[in-house]
């Protein structure tokens, strides 16, 4: 993978909430097509890290470069970056006043200025792919959690992103719905999109990730390819963490 | 273990919940009918024993008193009590409509200021809201009328703005627009501009659907609404002129006078109601979860699209019902004008007219019917809005 171009480059990123140091010198290099899983205890800064990438969070020090564009405080630059980065949230964040189809149309028609007809075709294609096309005219609250999360993934795909960010996409789901969402994510991964996923689904990490990153207290503690990461953890903190999440 | 025998056989007629419900409903109805008959009987007895005339024929009698503000032609000598009723109704509507407009504007600004990240602004808005919301509205009306407006100078010492707007203890005097021949064209052009904007909005939506292109609809609409009538105004040779108030002796002649009673009532009602509208606006905007804005941003939507397509549709759902209720409250509160003598429905009809005619039942019922009609109309509007804005599946 080393000869491939860099998609995301985070360099010495530091962030504070008031006095609280959330991110400490976070460095991250992610190549095009790479799948990265970030895990760590809650409050370790994993979500904050990926939320910095599409500027939902500001950072005070360091630099971020997305697909060749330096992330700076500029409305147009930020919008340009966001239009290449899809983000899936823990709580789906679908727009409840719009039907499933309209949820998928809003970005193509208002960001990429596509004709509605064309946008509908694209939207239906992606709804088909997440296996939910027959629900197109329902409203988000009429769907189950797993279905809503699949719609949220389809909504991101409609902007044809280079990068997909997943912020604990299965944490708010009932156990029996986790797999339907993970299946969609695995399919996506197989197609070669660049993917960063904050999750505790270790099975998914083993199956899909090229690299797993462990964060604690705002720092990247350890990173490795999945087998080494799980079978041969180096730091004590990762050992304790793995024991805790894999013990039952 | 032995089964304990039930103490009753389960056949008691009143132990059945359905029978009970029917029994109590019949009892309630009987009581209502009894009291209604009793009071009505009592009323007719009293009317008869005192020799009070009944019926609505008094409406055709000449009123014979002056009114300080009339929106329709009114003459002390010839106008009837029906005219008085209409004058009062129109004055109520005038102060209500103006009050609703001002309260909405102030309330919207206050609500947004309340959410501002600027410390001074949000705290000032908070102080304003907490102050004016917690003082009785009647007291506020009396305050504006007796403390603020009564302290204004006499006409000769008026506050003057641009030699055309005068403020003194007789009220606020404004230039009155005079429509001359040709002014119709200006009005027609304004109406046409509105029609054009409506068409433009539809056309822009259709174009956006077809091509995805955005159209700067807000800017073009504002330009159209201002430019078209202005242009026609000059082409038609400036047909609308203004009559300025002129000081003659101790008072002003000409122009448009807004009486102090209306000013005081308008100030009090808009400032008071605005506090409730501000809270509704704040609650509505805060009711939209943070995640909605984040999701919209993460899709790369522009700020105005996030506002109009994501935030507002969800916020308005929360904002509109309480705001419409406040409109209704403002209208009802306008009847407190009777304390300062603004000639609205309650002052003129349930006050002066009742004193002169003495037919309390008819007059009070007519007045009540007016407010009840307002309330029912607004409730219907509210139900319609609620049904239209409901989010499906929740």
In DSSP terms, counting alpha (H) and pi (I) runs of 4 or more, how many helices of chain A?
Answer: 9
- What is the helical fraction of chain B, as a range of percent? 55-70%
Determine the mean pLDDT of chain A.
91
Shape estimate of chain B: globular
Series of secondary-structure elements of chain B, N-terminal to C-terminal: HHHHEEEEHHEEEEHHHHH
Overall strand count of chain B: 8
In percent, how helical is the residue content of chain A?
A: 25-40%
Query: For the residues shown, what is the average pLDDT of chain B?
Result: 89
Which terms would index this structure?
heterodimer, A: 248 residues, alpha/beta, 6-stranded mixed beta sheet, B: 394 residues, alpha+beta, 4-stranded antiparallel beta sheet, two-stranded antiparallel ribbon
Describe the structure.
The complex is a heterodimer of chains A (248) and B (394). Chain A is 38% helix and 25% strand. Chain A is built from nine helices and ten strands. Chain A starts with 5 loop residues before the first strand and ends with a helix. In chain A, the strands form two sheets. A six-stranded mixed β-sheet of chain A has the order 6-7-8-3-9-10, with helices on both faces. In chain A, strands 2-1-4-5 form a four-stranded antiparallel β-sheet, covered by helices on one side. Chain B is of the alpha+beta class. Chain B is built from eleven helices and eight strands. Chain B has helices at residues 17-50, 81-115, 119-133, 137-148, 183-211, 217-235, 260-287, 290-298, 303-333, 345-357, 360-389; strands at 159-161, 165-168, 171-174, 176-179, 240-243, 246-248, 251-253, 256-258. In chain B, helix 2 (81-115) runs antiparallel to helix 3, helix 9 (303-333) runs antiparallel to helix 11 and helix 10 (345-357) packs antiparallel against helix 11 (360-389). The chains are: A alpha/beta (248), B alpha+beta (394). At the A-B interface, helix 2, strand 6, helix 3, helix 4 and helix 5 of A face helix 5, helix 8 and helix 9 of B.
């Amino acid at each position: 993978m080393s000869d491939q171009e860099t998609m995301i480059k985070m360099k010495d990123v530091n962030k504070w909430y008031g006095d609280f140091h959330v991110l400490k010198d976070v460095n991250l290099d992610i190549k095009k097509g790479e799948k990265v899983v970030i895990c760590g205890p809650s409050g370790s800064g994993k979500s904050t890290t990926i939320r910095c990438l599409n500027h939902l969070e500001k950072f005070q020090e360091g630099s971020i470069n997305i697909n060749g564009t330096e992330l700076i405080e500029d409305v147009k630059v930020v919008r340009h970056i966001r239009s290449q980065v899809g983000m899936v949230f823990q709580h789906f964040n679908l727009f409840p006043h719009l039907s499933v189809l309209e949820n998928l149309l809003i970005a193509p028609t208002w960001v990429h200025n596509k004709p509605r007809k064309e946008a509908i075709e694209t939207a239906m294609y992606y709804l088909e792919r997440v296996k939910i096309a027959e629900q197109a005219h329902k409203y988000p609250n009429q769907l189950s959690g797993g279905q809503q999360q699949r719609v949220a993934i389809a909504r991101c795909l409609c902007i044809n992103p280079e990068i997909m960010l997943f912020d604990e996409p299965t944490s708010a789901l009932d156990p029996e719905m986790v797999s339907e969402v993970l299946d969609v994510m695995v399919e996506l991964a197989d197609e070669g999109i660049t993917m960063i996923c904050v999750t505790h689904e270790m099975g998914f990490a083993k199956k899909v990730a090229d690299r797993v990153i462990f964060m604690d207290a705002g720092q990247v503690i350890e990173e490795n390819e999945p087998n080494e990461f799980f079978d041969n953890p180096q730091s004590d903190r990762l050992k304790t963490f793995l024991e805790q999440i894999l013990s039952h | 273990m032995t089964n304990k025998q039930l103490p009753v056989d389960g056949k008691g007629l009143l132990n059945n919940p359905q029978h009970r419900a029917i029994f109590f409903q019949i009892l309630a109805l009987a009581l209502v009918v009894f009291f209604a008959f009793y009071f009505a009987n009592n009323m007719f007895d009293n009317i008869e024993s005192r020799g009070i005339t009944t019926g609505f024929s008094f409406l055709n009698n000449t009123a014979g008193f002056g009114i300080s503000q009339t929106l329709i032609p009114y003459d002390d000598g010839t106008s009837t009590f029906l005219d008085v009723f209409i004058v009062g109704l129109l004055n109520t509507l005038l102060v209500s409509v103006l009050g609703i407009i001002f309260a909405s504007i102030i309330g919207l600004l206050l609500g947004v200021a309340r959410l501002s990240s600027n410390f001074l602004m949000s705290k000032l808005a908070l102080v304003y809201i907490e102050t004016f919301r917690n003082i009785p509205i009647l007291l506020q009306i009396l305050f504006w009328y007796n403390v603020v407006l009564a302290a204004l100078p006499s006409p000769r010492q008026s506050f003057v703005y641009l030699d055309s707007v005068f403020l003194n203890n007789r009220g606020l005097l404004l230039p009155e627009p005079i429509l001359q021949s040709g002014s119709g064209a200006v009005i027609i052009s304004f109406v046409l501009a509105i029609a054009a904007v409506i068409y433009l909005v539809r056309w822009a939506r259709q174009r956006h659907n077809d091509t995805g292109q955005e159209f700067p609809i807000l800017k073009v609409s504002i330009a159209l609404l201002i430019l078209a009538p202005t242009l026609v105004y000059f082409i038609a040779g400036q047909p609308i002129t203004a009559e300025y108030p002129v000081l003659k002796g101790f008072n002003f002649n000409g122009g448009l006078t807004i009486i102090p009673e209306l000013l005081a009532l308008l100030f009090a009602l808009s400032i008071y109601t605005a506090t409730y509208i501000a809270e509704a606006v704040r609650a509505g905007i805060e009711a939209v979860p943070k995640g909605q804005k984040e999701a919209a941003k993460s899709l790369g939507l522009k700020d105005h699209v996030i506002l109009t397509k994501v935030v507002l549709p969800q916020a308005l759902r929360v904002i509109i019902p309480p705001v419409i209720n406040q409109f209704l409250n403002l209208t009802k509160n306008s009847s407190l004008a009777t304390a300062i003598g603004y000639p609205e429905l309650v002052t003129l009809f349930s006050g002066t007219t009742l004193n002169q005619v003495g037919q309390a039942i008819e007059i009070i019922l007519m007045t009540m019917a007016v407010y009840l009609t307002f309330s029912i109309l607004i409730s219907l509007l509210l139900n319609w809005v609620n049904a239209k804005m409901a989010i499906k599946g929740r």
